[in-house]
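Feature request, filed as a ticket because there's no other form

It would be nice if the structure record came with a short human-readable summary line next to the tokens. Right now we just get the raw output. Example of a typical job, pasted below so the devs can see what we mean:
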Amino acid sequence: MEGLIAWLISVALAVVICVAVICAVRRPMRELLGVNSYISPARKFYLRAFTVLVFLTALATISKTDIPTGDEGPKAFMEYVWWVVGAVQPVFSALSFGLIIYAALLAVLFVVLGRYRD
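Raw output as currently delivered:
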């Protein structure tokens, strides 16, 4: 039961991380996408795609972790804390790679559509 609670805590932390990343990036991305009138109609699509990318990346990373079973005997509280930290660490790396790829995609999009600048 403790393993399930630790896994649920790591999922909750992943969701909190996702919400923090989305809140930090959403407004500047909306302004960036609104600069070019050629991209402006697709602004909602890119913002929603970004949100889906962040959540799916984090949840896919968390779903690959193994739940501690406690078969070896009772574990100390700090062992579960370190397990949660170890389970959340790949979320940060996966989100950073996802953000780099998404930013590169937007950069290529703006380079290609740069001649349509307002």
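Something like this underneath would help us a lot:
The mean pLDDT is 82.
Residues 85 and 112 are 41 Å apart (CA to CA).
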